[in-house]
Amino acid sequence: MPIATPTTTSVPDAEVAVADLNIYLADPTSEAALAECRKVAESLILTGALIVKDTRADQSANDTFLDLLESYFAQDQKALEKDLRPELGYQVGVTLEDTERPSCISTPKCVNIISSLPTSERPLDLTGHSADPKARFFWRMTEEREKSGLKGMGMHEAPNVVPEAFEGVWKDKMEGWGGRMKAAVQGVAEMLSVGLGLPASTIYDASRYGSHLLAPTATDLTKYGHLNSIFAGFHSDLNLLTIHGKSRYPGLHIWARNTGKKMPVKVPDGCLLVQAGKQLEWFSGGLIKAGYHEVVCTEGTLKAMEKFKVETPERPLWRISSTFFYHLSPDYQLHALPPLKAEAEKRFGPQDEYGSMSVADQVKRELGLIALVVEE
User: Fold this and answer.
1) Lowest mean pLDDT among 104-118, 130-144, 178-192, 265-279
2) Are 272 and 54 contacting, i.e. CB atoms less than 8 angstroms apart?
3) Cβ atoms within 10 A of the Cβ of 268, count?
4) pLDDT band for position 187 (50/70/90)?
5) Are residues 81 and 96 in contact, defined by beta-carbon separation less than 8 angstroms?
6) Residue 141 and residue 144: Cα distance in Å, rounded?
7) What residues does 311 pair with on adjacent strands?
8) Distance between CA atoms of 185 and 231, rounded to whole angstroms?
9) Is 136 among the domain residues?
């Protein structure tokens, strides 16, 4: 999974593009919409990331969601522990801090990538520390269908967890913001299909029953809010596409496939950030690489902390990322689509042999790498 510029072709450094989903939704067949689709595909190919405009995901809705999660994670430990579901790979309910490990520690190729980067461009997490200080809450947003009966599907069909203290509001607020995120990422998936030269429904059909997760990620800034503290170590996501609303506290860095440079990500108001995951890399035969990234405490994080201490001293000091993980369907047989793999090799040279595996098995394998399930 190279990050440096491929030797087989000269690829200019690329910026993360801003694509307008509203243009596509207004008229998917227009020339303007098709140009936005090509922008989506090319940004993901060259950088593994994309910024998308979607007026449905407005900032006020994001703020309401962030307020809810700040209040949730500010509860005492005993209240949070009631929402743990480790027997389901933590795929519903809460995951507490110091549980999830960055996947790089279990992946020699990832460690080699770090060592190949210029010293000034390496992540703060060089070897994979023991576990991340971040916590999460997973809320499934799957389109339900008849249970498959397949072995190992429990975590993909588990009921959601509703925290006791928020019983009256939790579902509506999670579904409210989560629905906006899901609609946005499904729109991006359709635009990506078109931009890759595939029928518009290709990715949607493969992901319709995916175990999509609204996955707000939380870091206690009163404990970990000091310069160069690592909130989430260097890693890439296991799913198809990850989409985020704008966080109140900066700190996300990404590495594009065509550059060895560490790039801070700034999400404009009214926009969402999309990142490619491992399922998309596999699906595209390496044409789109899973994007490596880290979240750390920067000077910008510290400035935002001071701002919010002054403006909202009554609010809990937690960094929340309104993350949404979009997955292929668990019974989908993951494999590289031949035309996409051919395009990858044409542009970037030989790619990995990805083989074939069910998404359910791929998810279980990846959860093992980050210490959320124990291999049998």
Assistant:
1) 104-118
2) yes
3) 11
4) very high
5) yes
6) 9
7) none
8) 25
9) yes
Q: Are 39 and 19 in contact (CB under 8 A)?
A: yes
| Count of domains observed in the chain | 1
Closest CA relative to residue 289, chosen from 250, 340, 362: 340
* Domain annotation covers residue 323: yes
What is the per-residue burial (b if ≥16 Cβ within 10 Å, else e) of 173-207? bbeebbebbbebbbbbbbbbbbbbeeebebbeebb
> Do residues 218 and 320 make contact, with C-beta atoms less than 8 angstroms apart?
yes
**Is residue 4 one of the residues assigned to a domain?**
no
* Euclidean distance between the first and the last CA atom of the chain, given in angstroms as a whole number: 28
- Domain at 118, CATH number: 2.60.120.330
Stronger pLDDT, 130 or 302, i.e. the higher one:
302
Instruction: Judge if pTM exceeds 0.85.
Output: yes
273-292 pLDDT per residue, tens: 999 999 999 999 999 999 89
Question: Distance (Å, rounded) from C-alpha 106 to C-alpha 316?
Answer: 34
DSSP bridge pairs for 148: none
> How many helical (H) and strand (E) elements, i.e. helices and strands, does the chain have?
13, 16
The burial of 26, by beta-carbon neighbours within 10 Å (0-12 exposed, 13-18 middle, 19 or more buried), is given as exposed
H or E segment to which residue 202 belongs? helix 202-207
